[in-house]
Amino acid sequence: MGATVDPITATGTHPRNVDGQAITIAVFSSVKWSGRIWLPLLFWAVTLLARVEAWLRRPPGTLARLSFIHFARWTLVRRIPYNGAPQQKEKLSYPRLFFESNFNGGWEEYIDAFSHILTKGMILFWGTSYGFPQPKPTAPFKQYIKENELEASHFYSAYPQATTTMVLAAHDLERKFDAFKGRIEGATPDAFAEAWRAFLSEVQADL
Amino acid sequence: MAAADVAPVDRADIQGNILRAYGKAYDRTSYVFTHLEDPAGGREWLGGLLSQVTSDQERPDPKLRPDETLNVAVTYSGLQALGVPADVLKGFSDEFRAGMAARAEILGDTGESAPENWEDGLGTGQAHILVTINALTSQLLERALDALKAGVEAAAGVTIVYHQPAQLLDEVREHFGYADGFAQPAIVGVSEHKLGGGIPEEGKWRGLALGEFILGYEDEDSLPPGRRLPSAPAEPLGRSGTYMVFRKLAQDVALFRKTLREAAALYENGDEEKLAAKVVGRWRNGTPLVSSPDAPIPGFDREDMSNNAFRYLDTDIDGARCPLGAHIRRANPRDALGWEGLDDSGLLAYRHRIIRRGMPYGPSLPEDAVEDDGEDRGLVFVCFNASISRQFEGVQTQWINDGNAFHLGHDKDYLLGDSSTTNKMTIQGKPPDPPFFLAPQAAFVKTRGGEYLFVPGLRALSAIAAGRWQ
Amino acid sequence: MSNRAGQATAFMAITPIVAGKEDELRAYLDGLSQDESPFALLPRTHFARWVILDDWNDEKSQPKKDHLLSRYLIFTSNFDGDLSSYLDELCDKLAPQAGELWGRCVGCPDGAAGEALKEYLMHNKINTGFFVAAYPHLRVGDVKRALDTRARLIDFAVSSQGMRPAELQSAFNAEFLLTDGSR
Fold first, then answer.
1. What is the pTM for the complete model shown?
2. Domain holding C88: CATH number?
3. CB B441 within 8 A of CB B421
């Protein structure tokens, strides 16, 4: 009698949620009355903040700097669209907060990062959801996420072998490489070699 | 959490060599795996061993230390072979129940390191009980082994399926020539004096909660108000126990030396020793690169705790001293995964610590030899942790077999690689010096076999031997 | 309400699965492989997925239990540029798949393609509240090109180590200037 265990990949989540290095997570949580008012306000505020930061060219906020997240979104589902019979009209007793994200690394590490680094952020977004335990201790919080997580049926990444840090490094590297190519036009071999060494030193964090 | 809040450690109930190492005087070890044909016979044999099992109890006089120590661990198939019922078995962790061979993909044990290529007896479910004997001399080890074998002969349905002897090398180094076995975790109530072994906080180090290593105690996640204990098998089996990882890792010393030699030709005028230090993050005598980037400290004392109290972010954020992908920086990042402006910079690393108690095996390759002599040599890697998946597997999958956490893409640990190949390794240069690259190449280390085991506390062992499960 | 982050867009549609067709739909999704994902036909797509929502999960602390009357197919996508032209592409390129998936949903137009399908998806759209992207200005093509350049640069940096200047320069030119269309 072998132990029957769910197929767990190195990422700690079901294989269907994984494409190469990319991991996806989707969570629905039921939202209290207070959330109906709070969440739209929150979304408006953080969206505005993000736009202001972009306009001011200030470094992006903590969430965007968590270097293993490609994309993340929160959505409040208040009603399910109706398409006529034979669909039955849904009446939601509670709106549902939908969270979706694509990231790298392990599922556990991802949730840990939210617990430790985005602690206040967690409470802002999930504080009005039923059953939301505190971000720490992490064990009940991970349990909560697991219970409310939806497994993907088909998940696609356009660049599955790349992690977010690789994408950011590649982008930074490309810019600097273009500048380098401009600098070495018509250079002698010795000047080229020196410039190459200087370039490698400049981009070593991207390699 | 302060030491005063913590439950006192029941040292007599915890097996030895976990919280406190037996020490380098015990320089000979044998790892003996047995197979149990019959539950009753197996339990009886286990019962016969109980009085010899060495605990973590304080010895009143260190000079009265025993000639040898004996410890017992059990695989999942071993628990089944002992007759542990299904509802009790469910309390053990998923990865332990699956076994190390089933986790091969995750661990990077593919190609030549894949379980189908492992040595007979390991990874097939045949290995049930691991008896580890440490002794002060080889004669004492022989004597203890003979006694064990006699007991196995006399017992009903017990056979030895695997035996690996091991012994410390000179200066407690491992086969690639690096000082090993030190810089272990600092644990509250046990070893807080190990500066640098705990969690880096603002200006100080905090010991890790005991429950990160021993079941039945609060771990780092046991926060107020609930202060819940981490999940563990139910009493009496769970308390004072821990999970153990056993991996026989064969090392190709000749290949490693040859690779370093060839690569060093282009590195800083052939400084092979420095290149060797860059791969690991410590000079061969144990001096950390972060503390002393240009030369090892002569007579470096690895037992001096203050030598281990270094961090990365304050002086070496870019890896100019200790490369970002160096072995020790990967295996224990300390504050290196820290977050800008965050006080508790060790928070993304602190729940992945392990206690290492492995031993080298096989004869040393003569110094300066760069051709393999065909001898089997390497490291019996042994570690202890409360959660194999979070701790050992977490380190192996996220930090050793991948580089993303360190912004190194898919670069793996250059020393361990994986079964087929290492990737490149970038050795960061101090501006204006450019980085130096170690080219991808065949792996120096191969997995020859392994098991996940449970190390019961002493009362738990008695209960198992008596068939008393609840 | 924010469906955009930089030039990237988030889209979500929830469509009710025709009663009795859930197993077929699920089987079809199970049969899709990531290596030959239909989404590869939409090169503006960074990440996308289909998820089946069987029912809500209820928390113990909820006063009432909530149950869905149908099963739903959820489609989410993170892609480049504006929604309207993306849906045009989807309704054109993904016609066969659309039939197998949305074709099994209530209210889907016959043929599951073109303008009618686009209207159907827009009708079932759920607007995103807050959308964050790590690289909001990079399109899929930008990402892939940069990743490729990085891989080639790394290979070159490793293999050219120790070359004398003249050899280094000519090797560099051969790798990056003659074969690389864009200087």
1. 0.92
2. 3.30.70
3. yes
